[in-house]
């Protein structure tokens, strides 16, 4: 049986931090894992900016409540789940993900957790495990599943390479150029057909 492992932001939904950057007018918050390959460096920068501007969890969640999935993503997921299992592997956080999962029909998601003070200030974050996307795909393979992975950022490359088949989806040109061996797509129909070509 095939399990398809998908990134969330940039693949199924807009980037949360870009939406929050636009909401707050803080351009430094536009940086994502498409721009910065070291996730720890990126998150420490984000947390520093939040502290500097006295922004807390509720402020980010208020923005997320206005974010809708990318056009066509819900239909893509619905069709995909007709012939295989799907797990979202994301470096987002449980405190961010639920409203988006509801809008996507509640697919399974493996993600991380924020550390939040009683006052609602985001003081840190806890990874489910280091390189969680890679290890999730590796673990699925170890228990007999065949795996397909798709994502758009630096932090998706390890899971894409580990999977039995892997694709870039709506990735920036510099990531596509650096990984010419990985098929790259921009439309849901293209990605769905590629997955069908592997999973039958």
Give a structural overview.
The chain has 200 residues and is of the alpha/beta class. Strands 4-3-2-1-5-6-7 form a seven-stranded mixed sheet, sandwiched between helices. Helix 3 runs parallel beside helix 5 and helix 4 (73-80) packs parallel to helix 9 (188-199). The chain is globular. The longest helix is centred in the first third of the chain and has 14 residues, at 39-52. Helix 8 links the parallel strand 6 and strand 7 (184-185). The chain has a single domain, classed as 3-Layer(aba) Sandwich (Rossmann fold), CATH 3.40.50. It contains nine helices and seven strands.
Distance from first to last alpha carbon: 10 Å
- What is the overall number of helices? 9
Can you summarize the main beta sheet?
Answer: 7 strands, mixed
| Number of beta strands | 7
Shape: globular
């Amino acid at each position: 049986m095939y399990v398809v492992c998908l990134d969330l932001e940039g693949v199924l939904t807009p980037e949360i931090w870009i939406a929050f950057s636009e909401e707050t007018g803080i351009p430094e918050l536009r940086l994502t894992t498409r721009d910065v390959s070291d996730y720890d460096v990126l998150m420490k920068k984000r947390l520093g900016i939040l502290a500097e501007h006295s922004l807390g969890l509720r402020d980010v969640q208020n923005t997320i409540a206005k974010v809708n999935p990318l056009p066509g993503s819900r239909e893509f997921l619905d069709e995909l789940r007709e012939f295989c299992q799907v797990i979202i592997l994301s470096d987002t956080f449980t405190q961010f993900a639920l409203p988006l999962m509801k809008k996507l029909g509640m697919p399974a998601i493996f993600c991380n957790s924020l550390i939040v003070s009683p006052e609602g200030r985001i003081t840190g974050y806890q990874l489910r495990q280091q390189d969680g996307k890679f290890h999730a795909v590796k673990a699925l393979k170890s228990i007999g599943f065949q795996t397909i992975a798709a994502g758009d950022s630096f932090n998706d490359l390890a899971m894409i390479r580990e999977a039995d088949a892997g694709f870039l989806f709506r990735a920036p040109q510099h990531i596509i150029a650096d990984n010419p061996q990985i098929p790259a797509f921009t439309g849901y129909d293209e990605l769905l057909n590629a997955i069908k070509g592997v999973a039958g």
